[in-house]
Amino acid sequence: MKISVVTTTYQxxxxxxxxxxxxxxxxxxxxxxxxxxxxxxxxxxxxxESRRDQLAVLVSEPDGGTYFGLNKGIAxxxxxxxxxxxxxxxxxxxxxxxxxxxxxxxPAVDAxxxxxxxxxxxxxxxxxxxxxxxxxxxxxxxWGWMPPHPTLFLRRSLYEQxxxxxxxxxxxxxxxxxxxxxxxxQGRVVYLPEVLVRMRLxxxxxxxxxxxxxxxxxxxxxxxxxxxGGVAALAWKNLSKLPQFVRKVAKHSGS
Length: 255
Prior knowledge:
Blueprint: E1 3-9, H1 16-24, E2 31-37, H2 44-50, E3 57-60, H3 66-76, E4 81-84, E5 90-91, H4 96-104, E6 109-119, E7 127-131, H5 138-141, E8 153-155, H6 156-162, H7 173-184, E9 188-200, H8 209-225, H9 231-239, H10 243-246
Parallel strand pairs: 1-2, 1-4, 2-3, 6-9
Antiparallel strand pairs: 4-8, 5-9, 6-7, 6-8
Helix pairs in contact: 7-8
Keywords: Transferase
Domain Glycosyltransferase 2-like: 4-158
InterPro entries: Glyco_trans_2-like, Glycosyltransf_2, Nucleotide-diphossugar_trans
């Protein structure tokens, strides 16, 4: 079973090599890495070109942003399973894809996800927050629960059936997609209770008060459009993040 890993980049020269190394270092060999660059001018493309032999697909052209790039990458994917790894992020260890593939060996499984740690931008060994996702239950979606999107692997057939990222959302298209997929899929959803991805802090959704407010509005729209919930679910979604700041993370740091 082939796993397609899709990465979008834009002005990521400082971090993209770590991402590429993380995928290339996976023990699971039946994989492809697809990189969609938004027309970087900071040296990102030079790094990508120097690793061209590691990539199944490399496209560099201006586009509408991350979700546009992800949609282009998913369209190029040939794997039965698709995962998304952002240019700032790395897999927790070299066995991540192997464990994901083992879970998908059951044909009844449609989705696999795990835990995520937020790490320092300068030192990916330093854990700032720990997101323990917990088991999937459909009713949890109505209380604002979601799996960490960078850890979510989906069968490519789900994208073909239910669509890709809705680009009218500028920040919450990932939340909308997860609600759509998890509410409509028929197969099993498997939780791997371990860290799969180390994510550098500094995402677009929390860069300013304006971004935070826009994200909350888009989250609300995603909840409503998918028939999952409304204000209460949005409130619980935000409150549920608080344990990430107080959880003891030392034993989960991957060191």
